[in-house]
Design goal:
about 130 residues, ANTAR domain-containing protein, single chain
Length: about 130
Amino acid sequence: MDTWLADALTRTGHDRTTTAPAAARLAAAMPVVDAQTGPARYAAGALRSACAELAAMEPDTGRNRKLFRSTTRLAGMAQAGWIDRTVVEAALIDAARHAGLPAAEIRYVLASGFGRPLPVPDIRSAA
């Protein structure tokens, strides 16, 4: 792989070969989600993934956009009853703080994202 591409992947948080200490700390602190059903397990996994990716992001790499997109996706799952909204909010707030986003920006993005929930995906084919 070219050096410029490897540098760009690392800088933007897309390098899957390096470990992210902030993401590891966040994963250890994540609330345990009681995921008995397929949709609940899917939502819990989506939340863990979104939080780990967000927490590992550096400034100027799209942290705000990642938080908004994650919020809209998880808001739809919360609205469908797949996961509790308060669990989603708390986990995303922690991840955004680890990423260095200001508290006011986090509140604004979460309010916007929960105001525009995306439809839940059809996970029947994923079984």
